[in-house]
Structures are given as structure tokens and as C-alpha cells.
């Protein structure tokens, strides 16, 4: 495998992940699932941050970050508070309790989306691929398999 193949695999996995995300009942949003996940990922690595800082780190437009934060706030996944040291700033952080929506997203299996991408409905083949992906995630993303 070379760098191009690895990049293409990553894009394919992102698309499968987006397909696996439950979207029932969330309504229309101006931001994509991908944008929201990029913001969440950045927020996990940089707690107590601002929209501008997230935009600078991710390369996303500030308007897209603001829309993603609004979407995350609406489901109770993040909180935004005025910075007591500088009342002009709003500090963004993950909500202390896991919201119902976050639980729903985390509990939704990838099997159907993965099966569609593999072109099979064979549960054994899908389970085998899930196991390989879990092993890869455990090696490359420390703690991902044990998050609550």
C-alpha cells in the first residue's frame, strides 16, 4: 500500500462512516455530518476552546464551525459559556453528561453501511471486516474502543 491508496481508503472509510450515522429525526441542517465530526474531534483534543480557534486548527470556515457547534448544542453534546476572563469570548466544551443523541450515534452499528460498501449481505463477511477495522482503530486511535 502506498500513500495514495491509504488516502483513498481513508476517504472510503469516512463515506461508510457517514452512511452509518443515524439521521432520523434530526431535521435539516446547513452542516454536513463530516463537518460536525471534524469539529467534535478537534474539541476532544482541545477542550475549552472557541469557534475561531477550532476554525483555525481545522481549516473549516468559521461559519461552518459555528453551524456545527449550534447543531451540537441543540442535541446537548456541547455547551457554550461566556469566558469569565474575557466576556467577549465564548468557550466551547463537551457537555459533562453524554446526551441521548450521542448515545444513539455511538450505539448505531456500522454493519448495514459496511455491507453495502462491500456489496454483500453475508453477516460473517461483515463481522470479519468489522473485527479488522476494530483492530486497526485500536492500534491507531488510542482509547477509541473504550470511550464512553
Automatic annotation (TrEMBL):
Record carries keyword Lipid metabolism: no
Classification via InterPro entries: HTH_MarR-typ, WH-like_DNA-bd_sf, WH_DNA-bd_sf
Gene Ontology MF terms: DNA binding
Residues annotated as transmembrane: none
Domain HTH marR-type positions: 43-89
Keywords on record: DNA-binding
Pfam families registered for this protein in UniProt: MarR_2
SUPFAM superfamilies in alphabetical order: Winged helix' DNA-binding domain (SSF46785)
Gene3D superfamilies: Winged helix-like DNA-binding domain superfamily/Winged helix DNA-binding domain
Protein name: DNA-binding MarR family transcriptional regulator
Provenance organism: Nonomuraea angiospora
Amino acid at each position: 500500500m502506498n500513500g495514495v491508496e491509504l488516502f483513498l481508503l481513508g476517504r472510503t472509510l469516512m463515506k461508510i462512516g457517514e452512511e452509518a450515522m443515524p439521521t432520523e429525526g434530526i431535521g435539516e441542517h446547513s452542516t454536513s455530518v463530516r463537518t460536525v465530526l471534524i469539529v467534535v474531534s478537534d474539541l476532544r483534543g482541545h477542550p475549552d476552546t472557541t469557534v475561531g480557534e477550532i476554525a483555525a486548527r481545522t481549516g473549516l470556515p468559521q461559519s461552518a464551525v459555528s453551524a456545527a457547534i449550534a447543531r451540537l448544542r441543540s442535541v446537548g453534546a456541547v455547551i457554550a459559556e461566556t469566558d469569565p476572563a474575557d466576556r467577549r469570548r465564548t468557550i466551547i466544551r463537551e457537555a459533562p453528561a453524554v446526551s441521548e443523541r450521542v448515545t444513539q450515534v455511538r450505539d448505531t452499528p456500522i454493519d448495514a453501511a459496511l455491507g453495502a460498501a462491500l456489496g454483500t449481505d453475508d453477516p460473517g463477511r461483515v463481522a470479519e471486516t468489522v473485527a479488522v477495522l476494530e483492530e486497526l482503530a485500536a492500534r491507531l486511535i488510542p482509547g477509541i474502543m473504550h470511550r464512553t
